[in-house]
Design brief:
The chain is rod-shaped, with a radius of gyration of 31 Å. The protein is 35% helix and 0% strand. It is an all-alpha fold.
Length: 51
């Protein structure tokens, strides 16, 4: 039978050696944030006509 100190050392060693579950979260998809803005249109379409 191990002593209290030996049992604590064994438990600590098992805790360190035991594999942990790791959740792998994929990074969010890169999206073009400004796709619907006025500056995404071609220059001739952005020009305002005076009439």
């Amino acid at each position: 039978m191990p002593t209290d100190e030996e049992a604590a050392a064994i438990v600590a060693a098992v805790e360190i050696a035991w594999p942990r579950a790791v959740a792998v979260v994929p990074p969010p998809a890169e999206r073009w944030r400004w796709s619907g803005r006025w500056w995404s249109k071609p220059v001739p379409q952005r020009r305002r006509r005076p009439w």
